[in-house]
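hiii, so i know i said id send this last week but things got crazy w the move. better late than never?? heres the sequnce for the chain we talked about at the cafe, plus the structure i predicted for it. fair warning i was half asleep when i ran it
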Amino acid sequence: MPDVHPLKEQDSGLAGSVLSRALQHDPLRAYIIPDAAERLEKSPASLEPFVRLGLSTGAAWSAGSAPEGVLIAQPPGFDVTPEIAAEIGLMALPSILGTDAWIRQGEVFEYLEEHHRNEVQGPHWYVAVVGVNPARQRQGIGRELFATIFAEADRTGTPVYLDTAQPLNRAFFESVGLELIFESVHPASGLNLQTYRRGSRLKAGPERARPS
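okay and structure toks below
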């Protein structure tokens, strides 16, 4: 089992590639970039800003030296300001993805944000993206990545949340201790969107929020 450790700055490009391969067949990524070849080409660069986000907040973990798996999160109370967005490369996403893909992504994210205002309240950790090299999936790497962020959350008694458009992952998420709290079909895309919560062992209760 590869060890889980904080992602190193020099491995950010490799992390983007791992996430790209892991999410190649993810329904949300397929909706954003429908053509499979184009998606494979553009995904690494379009995911790297999220990797840099995790690096900037100290909430990026990798499994193995390659790495074999990556988990990027936003810690409680962290806001993505325009300055931070520019620094980590989020402002470049429209040119990386293309106008149509950028619009499709924005529509889904805005829909989720609207629902989070009601469903997710209070301080929390938010899992922005997680993925495991397809060749190493179902070997416990994802479980180890989640155990790492759960341990961080337990130190402060803070819940952990994530969103997904892949309902096939429900059994796995529930097996690591996440609970489905919201499910909806996105009107424009038909995507089945789900939000999961893992309450802290130290502090239970409905303290939930999504960093903007």
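btw Residues 202-212 have pLDDT under 50 and may be disordered. thought thatd interest u
miss u guys!!
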